Structures are given as structure tokens and as C-alpha cells.
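Hey Z.,

So I finally got round to the zinc ion thing we talked about over coffee. Here's the setup:
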Amino acid sequence: MRLEADLHTHTLASGHGYSTVKEMAEAASAAGLKMLAITDHGLSMPGAPHYYHFTNTINWPRYMAGVEVLKGVEANIIDTNGRLDTPEEVLKYLDLVLAGFHSETWYNGKTVEDNTRAMIAAIRNPYVHIIVHPGNPMYPVDLEKVVLAARSYGKALELNNNSFLVRPGSSPRCYRLAKLARRHGVAVSINSDAHICYKVGDFETAVSMAQEAGIQSSQVLNSSAEEVRQFLARHKLNRESGVMTN
Ligand SMILES: [Zn+2]
Ligand SMILES: [Zn+2]
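And the result:
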């Protein structure tokens, strides 16, 4: 399976990333990618950038090192109503909004029910495109309910290659997520979650898992840069016309 885009990466601005935007774009180019999303962490994470970091992306060129660069954020879900730590005034500047749970942020949910409720509420947020690492065992959710909500609202669910390194115990839940996404026809996004340029486009473990679960590249959002463009355009149109589903 070949993927043309990496939709989840971090730079120095995240506080615990190690490369610049330029280095990340050059690495994407070297890896043969057509599209790269820079998605630094939302405001509540220790070390995360000030919101000016996101609004000031207005200065970025669309292409860097020949790669189309999307302005993004990995926002944190911070309560059981699915509220994000990154306000609408910031989100509206961005091309791509990822959302998920992270430790050391303000999230206060405790149970599977809390987490599921919060994640489904984030799925309903018209600014959110992709739910990141929903298979993280630190924040267990009812995976089938999440998959069905993603289907209803036309959102993608992530298989995060970095989870197998930094989120121990992710494999069985990610595999179950992949099987459910396959069964219900929900778009999957397979990303590196690179925090250093050397990891851009590093998808191998997650791609193998998706294939093992029977997922074809046509079901993987970022297998095609053009498909990503259409997905984002469709969501923008829905958001602006007040339509919640697609
Ligand atoms: Zn994350
Ligand atoms: Zn990340």
C-alpha cells in the first residue's frame, strides 16, 4: 500500500518535537510524499505553542520542498462534552484538525463511558476531521460506537504508527478498530505522528495492520493527496452550510 500524505506530524513548536517545518517538508519530499500536515499540539499540553503559532501559519507557502503542506493542529479533548483546548478562532485558520486524548492536559474523564461520550462529541464537532489514536488503551473507548459515529459524521479514524512505540498495549485495540472500520466502511488515516524529520512517512507497522484487517488503500484517506483535498473541501462546505453529516 502506498500513501501519498502524512497527516499527523510535529515540529519544534510542540515543545517535545525536534525538527523545523522546513526539515519536515524536506523529509516528506525525500520520502516521496506529495502532502504533509504539520499538526503541533493544542494549547493545553505542557510545552505546546501559544495560539499565535497557529494563526501565524497564514505566512506559510502552500508548497515547501515541492510538497503540499497543510496547516494543522492536534487538538486535545478536554472534557466529557468533547470540548477542545483549541478555540474556534484558531481552528478556522487551519486546513486540518485532529483531535484526541493526551495525558497532562485538562481532560477529566475517568471511565469508558466518559471517554466514549467525549470522543463522539469531538467527532460531531464540525471542525474536526480525524480522531487520533482512538485505540490508545490509556483512554479506552467503546470502539464500535466510535466507528459508527465516525461513519455518521463522515470523519476518519487514525491508525497511528507511533502508538506501537509510545502507547504500550495499543496493538490489539488498533487491530480491533481496523476490523470495525473495515466492516462499517469508515475512512482510516494512517499516520507517522513523527516528532522528528527522520520519522516522516514512517507508516510500516500501521500499514501492515490495516492490510491484515482487510483494509484496501481505497479506504485509507491519505492514500491519495487528491482524496484528502476533496475530503477537506467537502467538510468545509458542510461546515459553512451548517450540515453536520456528509
Ligand atoms: Zn497524539
Ligand atoms: Zn501527535
